[in-house]
Amino acid sequence: MKEIDLRSDTVTRPTKGMLQAIMGAEVGDDVYKEDPTVNELEQKLARMFGKDEALFFPTGSMANQAAIKLHTQPAEQLICDKWAHVYNYEGGGVSFNSGVSCKLVDGDRGMITCEQVEESINPPDFYHSPLTSLVCLENTTNKGGGACYDMNEVKKIRKLCNKHGLGLHLDGARLFNALVAKNEDPKDYGKLFDTISVCLSKGLGTPMGSVLIGNKDLMQNAIRVRKVLGGGMRQIGFMAAAGVYALDNHVERLSIDHKRASEIGETLADQAYVEEVEPVETNIIIFYLKKASDEAGFMKQLEKNNIRISNMGQGKLRIVTHLDYSEEMHQRFLDVLDNIKL
Ligand SMILES: *Cc1c(COP(=O)(O)O)cnc(C)c1O
User: Fold this and answer.
1) CA of 154 to the centre of ligand 1 (A)
2) Which residues of the chain are under the pLDDT cut of 50?
3) Which of 162, 278, 292, 342 is deepest in the core (most CB within 10 A)?
4) SS3 4
5) Is the dihedral of CA 156, 158, 163, 164 positive or negative?
6) In this structure, what is the dihedral angle of CA atoms 136, 198, 327, 5, given to the nearest 10 degrees?
């Protein structure tokens, strides 16, 4: 019985086609900016989002951390949702790398409104409070269950940032999921955000790599910050080749992951042991069992069937669909869910 690993969309292995692209990549020393494949990937993404520049990073956390550093000075404050990845899952890097604090907003499934941002801005002349300098949004939201922002809300937040001279960064680890689910144009995101980070190693299925995208004025320091964080890499074109391949071959197919996620959500909602399934918008399903005490038994029954999902604590269970989750696995998983008795 093959393992079905639905803990995250980061568990994928490169496909045959991707491995071929990696093997055939032309490479050079990227610290000298002489890796043609990295340059190709960066130009491709900058163009796609209508921005001047893009820079390849080893991880999404490093791309976000670099962006925060570019937008802020020590002792300043950024505004983000209480569930934001930059606050919860980057090891406290906001304070370590940038000396910045986070004003946490009580958003809806990881998304915050323009009104909430406005209430969170400290008055710049009130020198007792940290100076607010940046707003970080996440799309799709991770802890919020793959929820997608309403573009109109983002436009309002952009206007507010302009009014108060704040930077606007998008943690777009799963931005391609949102683009596909809502049929949006990357250039619209390029227009609204000063910087955008995108993960290639989640739904797009590469072994590693993220990209930070922005205009020259901000990005001219990005390569220095990346070096400081230890992220200057040499013949990394092999991994950039995987990224180029993923952008050409793995974007449209995200809709398959979304369809399967929505079917899992519907199946879960039918089960007597399930209390609630959060709305499924992309490839993440978050749900709660009727009795929190059933969690261990539920996970055990999945384990017996060689199926793995994530327990996020506070009764929150998470399933993520991805490139390595086949139709055959999908049918077997739905069947297992139908037959669990707690
Ligand atoms: C995965 C993820 C990141 C980046 O994580 P790395 O593991 O450092 O690549 C950033 N933001 C969100 C919302 C994520 O889901």
Assistant:
1) 21
2) none
3) 278
4) strand
5) positive
6) -70
Q: Angle at CA 260, nearest 5°, toward 257 and 261?
A: 80
CA of 123 to the centre of ligand 1 (A): 31
Residue range 2-52, pLDDT digits in tens? 999 999 999 999 999 999 999 999 999 999 999 999 999 999 999 999 999
The set of protein residues with a Cβ atom below 6 angstroms from ligand 1 is 59-61, 64, 85, 138, 142, 171, 173, 199, 202, 210
In degrees, to the nearest 5, what angle opens at C-alpha 162 toward C-alphas 178 and 171? 30
Cβ contacts of residue 34 below 8 Å, gap of 6+? 28
What digits encode the pLDDT tens for the residues 294-333? 899 999 999 999 999 999 877 889 999 999 999 999 999 9
3-state secondary structure of 183: coil
Token readout for 325 is 């989750």
Q: Give the integer Cα–Cα distance in Å for 126 and 313.
A: 38
Map tokens 């227009």 to a residue: 191
CA 85 to centroid of ligand 1, rounded, Å: 7
Residue 80 CB-half CA count within 13 A: 26
Quick check: 243 and 200 in contact, CB under 8 A?
Answer: yes
Is residue 77 classed as helix, strand or coil in its secondary structure? strand
Minimum-distance ligand 1 atom for the alpha carbon of 208: 9
Burial class (CB in 10 A: 0-12, 13-18, 19+), 127: exposed
CA-proximal residue: ligand 1, atom 3 (nearest)? 60
The H or E element containing residue 301 is helix 295-304
